[in-house]
Amino acid sequence: MQQFKVSGMSCGHCVRAITQAIQALEQTARVEVDLAGGLVRVEGNLDAAQIQAAIREEGYQVAPA
């Protein structure tokens, strides 16, 4: 499972936006979002660059955790 530090997440809409952006690239990816900790965990076949690009496209800052 890959883990990323994401800043700017504050609500359920953020969770949905990030989850949908990642699952648009891989439908079966498992996405866990920890709003309080500012963390996103992804299990699947995507590489880190693809995941980070998808999160950035939604308007969030992201870095490996």
Description:
There is one protein chain. The protein has 65 residues and is of the alpha+beta class. The chain has a single domain, classed as Alpha-Beta Plaits (2-Layer Sandwich). Helices cover 37% and strands 31% of the residues. It has 2 helices and 4 strands, in the order E-H-E-E-H-E. Helix 1 crosses helix 2. The longest helix is centred in the first third of the chain and has 14 residues. It is globular and about 25 Å long. The termini are close together.
Give a brief outline of the structure.
This protein has a single domain, classed as Alpha-Beta Plaits, CATH 3.30.70.100.
Order of helices and strands: EHEEHE
Level-1 CATH class name: Alpha Beta
β-sheet strand percentage: 25-35%
Indicate the structural class. alpha+beta
* Total number of beta strands: 4
CATH architect. name: 2-Layer Sandwich
Largest sheet: 4 strands, antiparallel
State the end-to-end CA separation: 11 Å
Low-confidence stretches: none
SSE blueprint:
Blueprint: E1 2-7, H1 12-25, E2 30-34, E3 39-43, H2 48-57, E4 61-64
Antiparallel strand pairs: 1-3, 1-4, 2-3
